[in-house]
TrEMBL record:
Domain of life of the native organism: Bacteria
Alphabetized HAMAP family for the sequence: GARS
Pfam family, one: GARS_A
Coiled-coil ranges per UniProt: none
Family label: Belongs to the GARS family.
Composition skew (Basic and acidic residues), residue ranges: 213-223
Disordered, as annotated region: 211-233
Provenance organism: Wenzhouxiangella limi
Name of this chain's protein: Phosphoribosylamine--glycine ligase
Length: 428
């Protein structure tokens, strides 16, 4: 059978690579894909935008696609799943109504308060003066979030009143994030360790994936501006059995029940970005798709058949599923273009990709394209070099060793991905 993966980033390369390993799959189509999916055995890029809903549904019909998996959030918010379902096509992801958990921060915060899901105190504003008053009331540092979709970069931590004012002016004017910032969610700053908790949901039940931890800040030591993610590792040792149970019982279960009761039954990947506070896990944000770059280390560890798993969920057999994982941890390091998350140049040739990677190491492409036989950069986050190891420290070392063999002009990456887990390993 054929599988279609919608999207063209690192997450989609990882999803397509994993889907192609299913013995039932004859070919994986990726729309539009990148240079990595173009070069991967068993995969075929199709030049259709992830936001071209008509083109995607036509492709699925013409190619007799048995399962479509949606990678990015924008087509989900636009209703790609609704479109596929209306034509009797199997598509894994939430409907546009359910996707509001990510497409509107204000919707998500109101939803959490209404259903008793622990989260930070917040206010929603649409003017600078009101925003500044609320920021002062909440107290600094304060978190400012663009209400709409901003590719994972619409979050600013304001340390001072002046910074809050300038950020509010940028967001609400549309200069920073366009229409996504026309409303701003102001939140209290939560103290603790972050974790990414992703489940596969069928609307009622949830099948948890391996835990992970993303590194959002650009610079080592979690400094600098927020990005879409500079790397991730799995599992996250901070999510022990007690924390795992707390997240499932206090966040995931009420979220699925709340969506069902609100008439927004949720099927797909539900991602809870949580802060592990002294008072217990609190939700920083919900995403309605697999995380990027969390997908890369998680899928490198997944031993179960991804396609069979997703088909079973769509067929109502989630309770029969039990996922198998490689016990080794995985670390993924993002190689980014100089200037990211701000402006950056594209079209830089990438060297080192032709080298055969050792067992347990995989280079996932994100912002790349082919020019003849040459791979060029075409985005801010260019590659995610991912490796398994007997420890997080060893996985990090292997990923860094391979990252050093790949190059393009003005490339940069963090050398400390997984440092919290490594510190735990060292201290016992």
């Amino acid at each position: 059978m054929k599988v279609l993966i919608i999207g063209g980033g690192g997450r989609e390369h990882a999803l397509a690579w994993k889907a192609s390993q299913s013995p039932r799959v004859t070919e994986v189509l990726v729309a539009p894909g990148n240079a990595g999916t173009a070069l991967e055995p068993g995969l075929r890029n199709v030049p259709i935008s992830a936001n071209d809903l008509d083109g995607l549904t036509a492709l699925a019909r013409q190619e007799n696609v048995a399962l479509t998996v949606v990678g990015p959030e924008v087509p989900l918010a636009a209703g790609v799943v609704d479109r596929f379902q209306s034509q009797g096509l199997k598509c894994f992801g939430p409907t546009s109504k359910a996707a509001q958990l990510e497409s509107s921060k204000a919707f998500a915060k109101d939803f959490m308060i209404r259903h008793g899901i622990p989260t930070a105190a917040h206010r929603v504003v649409d003017s600078v003066d009101e925003g500044l008053r609320q920021a002062i009331n909440i107290g600094f540092p304060v978190v400012l979030k663009a209400d709409g979709l901003a590719a994972g970069k619409g979050v600013v931590i304001a340390e001072t009143e002046d910074m809050a004012r300038s950020t509010l002016e940028d967001m609400l004017s549309g200069n920073a994030f366009g229409s996504a910032g026309r409303r701003v969610v102001i939140e209290e700053f939560l103290v603790g360790e972050e974790a990414s908790f992703i489940v596969i949901a069928d609307g009622v039940s949830a099948l948890p994936l391996a835990s992970s931890q993303d590194h959002k800040r650009r610079d080592e030591g979690d400094r600098g501006p927020n990005t879409g993610g500079m790397g991730a590792y799995s599992p996250a040792p901070a999510v022990d059995s007690t924390v795992h149970e707390q997240i499932m019982e206090n966040i995931i279960a009420p979220a699925l029940a709340g969506m069902e009761s609100d008439g927004c039954r949720f099927t797909g990947f539900l991602y809870a970005g949580v802060m592990l506070t002294p008072a217990g896990p609190k939700v920083l944000e919900f995403n309605v798709r697999f995380g990027d770059p969390e997908t890369q280390p998680i899928l490198l560890r997944l031993k179960s058949d991804l396609v069979e798993t997703l088909l079973a969920v769509l067929d109502g057999r989630i309770v029969d599923l039990d996922l198998e994982w490689d016990p080794r941890p995985a670390v993924g390091i993002v190689m980014a273009a100089g200037g990211y998350p701000g402006s950056y140049a594209s079209g830089k040739p990438i060297t080192g990709l032709e080298l055969p990677a050792p067992e347990g190491t995989k280079v996932f492409h994100a912002g790349t394209r082919l020019n003849g036989e040459t791979v060029l950069t075409s985005g801010g986050r260019v590659l995610c070099v991912t490796a398994l190891g007997e420890s997080v420290a060893q996985a990090q070392a292997r990923a860094l060793e391979w990252t050093a063999r790949i190059g393009f002009e003005e490339a940069f990456y963090r050398g400390d991905i997984g440092y919290r887990a490594i510190n735990r390993e060292r201290t016992g």
